[in-house]
Design brief:
Number of strands: 8
Shape: globular
CATH class: Mainly Alpha
Structural class: alpha+beta
Radius of gyration: 21 Å
CATH superfamily: Cytochrome-c3 Hydrogenase, chain B
CATH topology: Cytochrome-c3 Hydrogenase, chain B
CATH architecture: Orthogonal Bundle
Order of helices and strands: EEEHHHHHEEHHHHHHEEEHHHH
Helix content: 40-55%
Length: about 375
């Protein structure tokens, strides 16, 4: 009698520690081979978009910290503030625009450090986890000196920032940059040529340029597949058009490429911050905006480059004190659904490496 085999349906998560949140992956397996993957989301709904429609424009800044991607609070604040400022015609002082860029790039570094450290743990590299969180603590120290918070800040305000940086802060920031840049080289030396790390990442979880574009992937995931698109270059906001930096691009579209792109992005963030600190003008840091502001009727869509990709903010005003409609284009959502293309044909052991390489945050996926 011939041996009969059949496909196995396996649930990974939503409690699995390496999903980094409440994500359920419904895997279809033929032995150890993955034939299909269906991400099942919706375990972490915060209803942040609907909540923002019942709060004033000023109050909503705090919701972007907590209801969206909690690792990039300042980048979330920037996208929302830019949208409301465009809607209301608010002019932001020059010094505030430079400060915003500095803080967004520091937050990009902090976010990438969390990704690299936790991905390292997933792949068995404990040392890189300890190193990354050591450096991240120094970034959070810089945040705390200005905003009073380490994760949630409510520092960006409609019209600028809450307060100017204190005396000595810019020097401390330069000291951190001088310390941090050689650490990125250490990460590279520790991991890139490591035969175990290379075996787990090179050629694994490949997604081509066409497939990445069709899935709506953006950020490091898209740039690792050869899509040289960065909102900071394509549609500059704040003062990015005055600063020199490169957009890291790889073409292999595998886990290793996504790692190399983010590693280089941290170096480019250092480059951006140094220029912004050098050119930081004097002056006011906040325009006068009424607490109960009422933007004119209209709608606006603003996009920014978050550490995870294109972050879009669509806001509609009916002339009242609260937005009529808010819709957020979350990069983690689209990047997550590229998993199906990345994982099909690989082994169970590759699931964690591939999932970790796209750097999703579940509060950004579900909202």
């Amino acid at each position: 009698m011939p041996l009969r085999t059949e496909e196995l349906l396996l649930n990974m998560g939503p409690q699995h520690p390496s999903t980094h949140g409440v994500l359920r992956l419904v895997l279809t397996l033929d032995g150890e081979n993955i034939t299909d993957v269906r991400p099942d989301i919706g375990y972490l709904h915060s209803s942040v978009e609907k909540m923002m429609e019942h709060r004033t424009y000023v109050q909503n800044v705090a919701l972007t910290d907590r209801g969206m991607d909690y690792l990039i609070a300042l980048n979330n604040e920037a996208a929302y503030c830019l949208a409301v400022e465009a809607l209301a015609g608010v002019e932001v002082p020059e010094r505030a625009r430079y400060i915003r860029v500095i803080f967004q790039e520091l937050n990009r570094i902090a976010s990438h450090l969390v990704w690299l450290g936790t991905w390292g743990i997933d792949l068995g590299a404990t040392t890189v986890f300890l190193w990354c969180f050591r450096e991240r603590e120094r970034v959070l120290d810089l945040f705390e000196q200005v905003t009073g918070g380490r994760l949630h800040h409510v520092y960006f305000r409609i019209g600028g920032v809450y307060a100017d940086v204190p005396d000595g802060w810019t020097g401390a920031c330069r000291d951190f940059l001088d310390y941090f840049l050689p650490r990125v080289d250490e990460y590279h030396q520790l991991l890139t040529q490591n035969p175990i790390f290379e075996a787990r990442t090179r050629g694994v979880g490949v997604i081509g340029r066409r497939e990445a574009a069709a899935m709506g992937a953006s950020g490091p995931v898209a740039r690792a597949s050869g899509i040289a698109y960065d909102v900071r270059k394509a549609a500059p906001y704040e003062v990015y058009d005055r600063l020199e930096f490169d957009v890291p691009v790889q073409t292999s579209g595998d886990c290793l490429a996504r790692y190399l792109v983010r590693l280089e992005e941290m170096r480019q963030s250092v480059r951006i911050i140094r220029q912004a600190l050098k050119d930081l003008p004097a002056g006011e840091v906040r325009a006068r905006v009424p607490v109960a502001m009422k933007p004119p009727r209209g709608e606006v869509y603003v996009r920014t480059e978050s550490p995870r990709g294109t972050l879009g903010m669509y806001v509609v005003s009916d002339g009242g004190e609260t937005p009529y409609r808010v819709k957020i284009r979350a990069p983690s959502f689209s990047n997550l659904y590229a998993l199906t293309e990345m994982m099909r044909g690989w082994k169970i052991a590759d699931i964690i490496a591939i999932l970790g390489s796209i750097d999703i945050v579940l509060s950004d996926v579900d909202r």
